[in-house]
Amino acid sequence: MTSNLHVAPMELRHRLQEELNLRGWKQKELAEASCIDSSSISYIFNNKQSLMLPQLHAINQAFGLPKHSFYEEFIGECCNEMGRLRPDKTSDFILHCIEVEKYDLVKQLVQLLYEETNRSKMIDTTFKIAERIFQSTKRNYSLPFYDIIVRNGYSRSEKIALSYYRRFLILRDLDTSGAGNEALCQLIEYLPILPDKLRLDAYYRILTFYNVVENWSKLLLYAKELRNIAFEEGQDDYVAEGWLYESVALMGMKNFEGALKITQQYAVYGDHYVRLARCNELYIYIEMKQTEPIEELMSLLKGDQVLLVLPIALESYVSNDAFHDAAQYLEKYKSNVDDLLSRKDPFHLKHKLRLTQALAQYYLKTAHHDLGFEYNALSLELALTLKNMQYVGTAVITFQEYELHATPEHKNRFTNILLNEVDSDEKSINHDVHGSFLVRFYRSVFGNESG
After folding, report:
1. Is residue 362 in some structural domain?
2. What is the pLDDT of residues 279-288, one digit of tens each?
3. Which residues form the HTH cro/C1-type domain (predicted)?
4. If DSSP states are collapsed to H, E and C, what string results for 357-385?
5. Which of 58, 192, 207, 446 is most solvent-facing, going by the fewest CB within 10 Å?
6. Hey, which residues does 79 pair with through a beta bridge?
């Protein structure tokens, strides 16, 4: 590998010279066509100056070649005179390799990082590369590089703590109930080592995670921790968020009276929290199966906030056998219902799950059995994907309750969903994630290790 790196710059310049000769150009003509000054072209071709990636792109454009031509030979340009990767240049090159799906080149760069004999330098270089990629629009592709750091770190350093934090932020969105949960467990012991400016934010992200996966006991625990730490540091917004999520946790535990009391605790932290407290107060009443507050709450909501209320509002109407009101509600908010049903991100999936179950109950109770069984099947699939056993049980009980109205097709679909789950653990994994561009990249870098 090392000898190839020494040869690569000369090979690159040889290839560029061939293209120049093929066109019968002089270096001056290339300089004019590429808008690179003549002295730089001369230094580059004589290997007296490192070639920058934008310069390679400009030269390729001048030659009428694809932008990513000669990428294989460009790896040597990412190294300094000691043969070590330059973090800034390497991270920029990696992002362009990902863009054109040249994963084999990324794999070579990862291998170069592993070949660094000085572990401290390896971690320092890898961390700089990972951070640059994380701050880009392709932040998820920094995951393999943070993995190098946590696998090779030998002390409880700030870099290790930050790497665990970044991994959590990436994995919670890719595989919430699986890898995301595992990444969080690894992060917990490193929370005290995070930089002060990030520690409170990390606690807040943990709260949002436990809210999504509906782990109410953990949400309650970390809401109190965040509140106590934020109070000591005088960070009022985080104190208010701690109170807010404690209220959410109590509501999830069906302690509605406790949740209502705590809404008053964060209402004192400014107009924003006054509004949130009122909205959440109405939300809790609806969770208690009261239908009267529904319209007032809907009038207070903005944008996507409507999506979070749709399931509980429909549940409330159905629980009270207010089917006419439910029908009007579904008609009025049809576009929002369709919007939520189309969502695939982890945050909205749990609300989508609840909505599909509420729709199943509504249509089955109003004798629209085809639609009812359709939404119940969707609810079962979502519950298995999210590993939400409560809703798996609800879907099964719902099917059994209305089984007399089920056609053979309904029964076969429901049975197949359950059988596929039993036959293979992979059936419960979000295939949108595992077939994604990112996972193909990740597997190409680490091979079977990541499988």
Report:
1. yes
2. 999 999 999 9
3. 16-70
4. HHHHHHHHHCCCHHHHHHHHHHHHHHHHH
5. 192
6. 85
Residue ranges of alpha helices (H) inside 78-195 are 87-99, 103-115, 119-134, 143-152, 158-174, 181-188
Task: Of 56-70, 100-114, 430-444, give the range with the top mean pLDDT.
Answer: 56-70
Say if residue 278 is in the same domain as residue 310.
no
Same domain as 328, residue 407: yes
Do the Cβ atoms of 44 and 19 come closer than 8 Å? no
**Which of 354, 386, 355, 365 minimizes the C-alpha distance to 318?**
365
- Please report where in the chains the tokens 């109930």 appear, as a residue: 177
CB atoms within 10 A of CB 19: 18
* Rounded distance between C-alpha atoms, residue 131 and residue 135, angstroms: 6
- Structural contact between residues 333 and 299, judged by C-beta atoms closer than 8 angstroms: no
Mean predicted confidence (pLDDT) in 201-217 = 93
| Its pTM surpasses 0.85 | no
Residue 66 counted as domain residue: yes
Tokens of 124: 């320092």
